[in-house]
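Hi F.,

I've been meaning to write this up properly since the lab meeting, where we talked about keeping a consistent format for the predictions we share between groups. The idea is simple: the sequence comes first, exactly as it goes in, then the structure tokens exactly as they come out, then a line or two of notes. No screenshots and no reformatting. I'm using this chain as the first example so we have something concrete to point to.
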Amino acid sequence: MEIKEVYYKALIENDGQLNEIDLGEKIGLGEDKTREIIVQLLSEHKIEYVEYRSCNYRLNKLKKRKK
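Output, unedited:
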């Protein structure tokens, strides 16, 4: 499994309890690698920057589209 997916799943399970850097360190990533993964997830629109508890990122909410 790609490390980005591991971080993404950890972010889901974290639910804002740890900040994004501490979460990366918890799964064995350094600060630079964690920030790199965050940039990738932001560019893929999987997460968004929002102050959410201790963490500054949360999952993007999917909007329902009307047909």
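Notes:
The beta strands are 47-52, 55-59.
The radius of gyration is 12 Å.

If this format works for you, I'll send the rest the same way.

G.
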